[in-house]
Design brief:
The protein is mainly alpha-helical. Helix content is 87%, strand content 0%. The protein is built from three helices and no strands.
Length: 84
């Protein structure tokens, strides 16, 4: 189960980063709008921003894991071609 989740995160890391940034940008826009209108910010602004940051970090980890796996594969291929 966890392996499937990590595979999903590795394959869709950039999309997760974009979704996380969208959450953060939306939360910031709502926060600015509520401050301009001199009203209290929505109680969902900070949790939405935190969720966005968590999703972004998961996507960033996925991109890093994918790059690491690709680098490992390229090293293995290079060592295979050198040994032949």
């Amino acid at each position: 189960m966890i392996r499937k989740i990590w595979i999903f995160v590795r394959e869709h890391g950039r999309i997760l980063m974009l979704v996380g940034m969208a959450f953060v940008i939306t939360a910031v826009a709502i926060l600015f709008q509520s401050r301009q209108m001199s009203g209290a910010p929505s109680p969902l602004v900070w949790p939405a921003a935190i969720v966005g940051i968590v999703i972004y970090v998961l996507g960033r980890v996925g991109v890093a894991l994918d790059a690491r796996a690709r680098q490992r594969e390229s090293k293995e291929q290079a060592s295979d071609t050198e040994s032949q």
